[in-house]
Structure formats: C-alpha cells, structure tokens
C-alpha cells in the first residue's frame, strides 16, 4: 500500500524533522528528503516507509502536522500473483541448475566443462535476479511508502482581488509620474544652462557678418 499527500505548513524544515521522528516512532524510516527555495516559493518533500499495519495511523498523524491538506491519495497493489509466478520460475531454474551441475561432473574434457559452465552461469544469474525480486516484494509488502509534499503558507501566492489590483496600478502610475517629472526637471535645468552661451555665439556670428 502506498500513499501521497500535500501539506501546507508554517515551517518546512521543522515539519520534515517531525515527519522523520514520527516514522522512527512507528518503527519506519526515511527513504529520501529535500527542501527547495525559489524567490518567495518554498517547497519540500520527504518520503518515508512505515509498517503496513500502521499506515492509517501515519496518515492521521501527518494530517495533524498541517494547516491544510489540499491533496491526498492512497493505492493498494496486490503482489500475490507475481510472487507465485516467481516461485514457480525459481523452482524450475533450481532444477535446471542441478542438471547442469550433474553434467559438469560427467564432462570428459575442458571444452565440455567450459560449455556447461557457461550455461550454468546464465542460470545462476537468473536465479539471483528472481531471488532479489522476491526479497524486494517481501520487504515492500511488509511496509508502506508515503510521499509527503510540503508547501509553506508564507510562500503561497495571495488570492487575486480587484481592489488589490487597483491599488497596485495606482502605485505604479504614481511611481512612473514621479520619474517623468524628475526627467523633465533635469532637462529644464540643462536647457537653461546652455541658453547664455548660445546667445553670445549668435551675437558674435551676426557682428562678423
């Protein structure tokens, strides 16, 4: 059984510590975790495993850590059929391995031994793969995976409103007007500074003419 949920919290780092402590209290463990910050947005994720029989308890305790829980889901997967199929394949491969071992003892020369050894290695590789998969299914069926996505409430965007948009537009227009006025004032100052030299230059030109 697996689960996923999104929690809105006040402090992601503190909540991640609490989730890890909870997993340990339930005789589970943390699979992975990370925290991500970008501008005003703060996010985090922590994935834990807890004993299968304590899955619902873990979900309930996680909800208590949140200000809000906008999303959650659970999924149950039955691996019985796959496990039975793996058992049958393993039994056949073990029988094949025994036959190759018998042939190895009956080999009359090095060439025959090498041929049998090659096939024996292939069978042993398949056996180890199946045994590994069966062990994984046994372990995962005993525990449940829970993915917890975290969002800080202070990093969430505020809802849009007409009054807020109008205030923002007025502030922007005021700032623009002040900037434009400053530019015009500076242009006026520099223009008057150039008027006297320009008049003198024109008079000199006219007197020469």
UniProtKB/TrEMBL annotation:
Coiled-coil region list: 76-140
Please indicate if the UniProt record lists NAD as a keyword: no
Record carries keyword Glycoprotein: no
* Transmembrane stretches, start-end: 183-202
- Give start and end of each DUF4349 domain: 1-200
Which keywords has UniProt assigned to this entry? Coiled coil, Membrane, Transmembrane, Transmembrane helix
In Swiss-Prot or TrEMBL terms, this protein is called DUF4349 domain-containing protein
**Organism, scientific name:** marine sediment metagenome
